[in-house]
Structure formats: C-alpha cells, structure tokens
Write a structure and sequence with these properties.
Number of helices: 3
CATH architecture: 2-Layer Sandwich
Strand content: 25-35%
Helix content: 25-40%
Oligomer: single chain
Distance between the termini: 35 Å
CATH topology: Alpha-Beta Plaits
Low-confidence stretches: none
Strand order of the largest sheet: 2-3-1-4
Largest sheet: 4 strands, antiparallel
Number of domains: 1
C-alpha cells in the first residue's frame, strides 16, 4: 500500500458484564495513545491518522489487547478512508466547519 496518510475511525463496543464498558474503552484508547499514531477521541469513536500500515496495525493492537486482557466479547466498528493519489486527513474534511 502507498505511504500517503489515511484516516480511520474505530469504535469499540464491549459486550460484557465484568466491569463497565467504558473501562474497556478507556483501556483501548490507552493502546491507541501509546501507538504514536495521530488520534482524536470523539464521543462515539476515535479517529486515527497515519499510513495504512500504521493505522491498521493500531486497530490490530487494540483488538489483540482486548483479547489478551480477557474481554469476553466486543464489536469493533471500523471505517477506513484511503485516497490513491495523496493524503486524506480529518482536518481536510472538517476545517471548513470549525469556527
């Protein structure tokens, strides 16, 4: 895959009763925070920006982390936008709406 910037959103929906679902989400965000990939936490999903390889590796690490930590079940909802000829960033899509 090319080395342009892609962006993705990941939403983790734990299906658990062992602790509050937000605790699992907070731990998943810590995995993202430690990855070095640019990210922005939103109320429903976290947006990631980096190369395709970087972003998909972080998504894999989040899922592996939940598995290794014993999360019983979860849904990973992922959206990934790729532009063949250049970078695609969240800022390029939302800048016109910021005041």
């Amino acid at each position: 895959m090319h080395q342009y910037i892609v962006n993705a959103s990941i939403q983790i929906l734990p299906i658990v009763q062992d602790k509050h679902a937000y605790e699992w989400v907070d731990e998943a965000i810590e995995v993202i925070r430690g990855s070095g990939v640019r990210y922005e936490v939103g109320p429903f999903a976290t947006v990631l920006e980096g190369t395709y390889e970087e972003v998909t590796a972080v998504i894999g690490k989040v899922n592996e982390f939940l598995y290794e930590r014993g999360c019983a079940e979860w849904i990973s909802s992922i959206q990934l936008q790729i532009r063949s000829g250049g970078d695609i960033t969240g800022e390029s899509k939302t800048a016109k709406f910021k005041q």
